[in-house]
Amino acid sequence: MEAPILQIAGLRAVFRIAGRDIAAVQDIDLEIGSGETVALVGESGSGKSVTSLSIMGLLAKKIGHIADGRISIRRRDGSVTELTGLDAEQLRRVRGNDIGMVFQEPMTSLNPVYTIGEQIAEPIRIHLGKSHREAAAEAVRLLTQVGIPDPARRAKQYPHELSGGMRQRATIAMALACNPTLLIADEPTTALDVTIQAQILDLLADLQAERGMGILFVTHNLGVVAEIADRVAVMYAGRIVETGPVSEVFARPRHPYTIGLMRSVPRLGQATALKAAGTPLPTIAGNVPSLAMLPKGCSFAPRCPMAIDACRAAVPPLFQVSQTQASRCIRWEEL
Amino acid sequence: MSAPAPYLTVRNLTKHFAPTAFSRGPVVKALQDISFDIPRGQVVGLVGESGSGKTTIGRSVLRLIEPTSGEIRFDGKDIVRLGAGDLRRQRRNMQYIFQDPFASLSPRMTIGQILTEGLDIQRIGNRAERRARAEKALAAVELPVDAYDRYAHEFSGGQRQRIGIARALTLEPEFIVADEPVSALDVSIQAQVINLLRDLQLRLGLTMLFISHDLAVVEYICDTVIVLYLGRIMEIAPAASLYARPQHPYTRALLSAIPSPDPTKRSKRQTLKGDIPSPANPPSGCVFRTRCPYAIEACAGVVPELRETEAGHLKACIRDDIPA
């Protein structure tokens, strides 16, 4: 069997805050196959971005580091490289060649003093060893591929001359420049208007169908997950609390947090009925706990309508609900 | 049932931002000929994407920015013409809730100072009375009274937004502009804050203008929804009617672009092509025509008037033959 594009096992990343190591993520196991899109979904502080930064080796060195676990990726030549053991230079090479990255805010991930074309051409020159002329031509071809009209002219423009949606298309072109096997997209549509978000989601799906890369899609938006992902991992307070195929998890969530989150998403047309009946919108009581002061046992227990004493005794393991779905809830069978 | 007399009346509101000594460039036509009413005790939602003018409307009705032309009447009184003193007295009745609960609360002031600042400016009550009002507002937003002596950084995003709401309540206003009050919050907290706003609005009989970029968020709290695009109104309708029978092609596209949290409904949406044009150079005729899948030649000719398609439901589109 072909090795997965990305394999994470037992990842634990810690931040050093006020002299104390605080785990931002722990017990993370995740796999992405080629041509597969896996969504990492969670609210602020759940650890979804820390997970993606860990893969890219981009945790801020002074405060955060990977304390435990393995992250390996399958490269274009089929070899499997473990990222956690690499030095900075080796990691840079893997990142440029085999991992593409797209971030939330296209204006901050583009350099304002270089043209769009120069920025897309740079990795092609550095990582693929192409000449300036070849790289520039390739940049225009990539801009065409991400649906930018008049690409030859756009390549000569600076980021501020493009709209938000166009800029995000340009960063996608940049991420794809070296034909990566894995694309990490961290909230790539969050800063965009909803009609532009729809365009970018369509674009990512099309590009994946053409190139067969694996996509790790980090988002807080369950609607986006339902739209784009094959599988989903739901994170809460630094751990994956539920994982499985999108079709299964959305049809029958097996963790009370997933259930609460899905109920909290406003669904068009439903609110009118609730309002007419005088019923409040469904919510999850309380607030997300601070990572520095996680409760003992299940982190969700203080907000959970189903919590019992056993929940507060020990952190639940991931229970295999089906061959493909797993839940970190000791009462999953009752859900 | 006869409609109650409007509390807020906006007529032909237009706002152009001209270049200043420090900026170059063309005049930005942020709002063009906006008219709507809010009956007393009702909530009107303003929905649109970036550059649609929703925040400009919110700020104009409180005269935080000066309209270029048009009328804004509260209870019959045109506030565009009020002098500074009268305006300050009028503002007692009008408050603003901001989007970002991190940027809108001073890190150097205690919550008590933040909550009583408006009372100080309006010279309402003595020190004890101000404190009592602030504590009442804290109770109304379900925060503990001991929050009074603490600082904003000690609270989570959702709690801070409650403080922002409490600040708006201490002056016991009749009218509140809530500008994207839940957009910065996590989804599980969003619903809590919307429930709170709805509850306060009903209990206190508040009249409200609720601004959001997300049609899914305003459905629960609004009686009427106004859909804006590039500084113009595309559609106005009672909430139930808008979601059940959206009329304008833009409203339909906006609804269809919201990703549904249901994987079985995947890929049934219609995606709008292209970008939102610049408000410095809006298209002639219907401003939406450059992205509209149903645009015909006539759409470039005239600015479509708002027409009633059913009771209280108005659209600014010249076509009636668009398939549902």
UniProtKB/TrEMBL annotation, chain A:
GO CC, alphabetical: plasma membrane
Enzyme Commission identifier(s): 7.2.2.11
Domain of life: Bacteria
Quaternary structure (record): The complex is composed of two ATP-binding proteins (NikD and NikE), two transmembrane proteins (NikB and NikC) and a solute-binding protein (NikA).
Membrane topology: Peripheral membrane protein
Location in or out of the cell: Cell inner membrane
Species annotation: Mesorhizobium helmanticense
Keywords associated with the record: ATP-binding, Cell membrane, Ion transport, Membrane, Nucleotide-binding, Translocase, Transport
Family from the record: Belongs to the ABC transporter superfamily.
SUPFAM superfamilies given in the database record: P-loop containing nucleoside triphosphate hydrolases (SSF52540)
Residues covered by the ABC transporter domain: 6-262
Catalytic activity: Ni(2+)(out) + ATP + H2O = Ni(2+)(in) + ADP + phosphate + H(+)
GO molecular function terms listed in the Swiss-Prot or TrEMBL record: ABC-type nickel transporter activity; ATP binding; ATP hydrolysis activity
Pfam family, one: ABC_tran
Protein name according to UniProt: Nickel import system ATP-binding protein NikD
Automatic annotation (TrEMBL), chain B:
Molecular functions (GO terms): ATP binding; ATP hydrolysis activity
Cited CDD domains: ABC_NikE_OppD_transporters
Chief location category: membrane
Keyword Coiled coil carried by entry: no
Organism lineage: Bacteria, Pseudomonadati, Pseudomonadota, Alphaproteobacteria, Hyphomicrobiales
Subcellular localization(s) per the UniProt record: Cell inner membrane
Protein's UniProt keywords contain ATP-binding: yes
Domain ABC transporter positions: 8-255
Alphabetical keyword list: ATP-binding, Nucleotide-binding, Transport
SMART domains named among the record's database cross-references: AAA
Transmembrane intervals: none
Name of the molecule in the record: Peptide ABC transporter ATP-binding protein
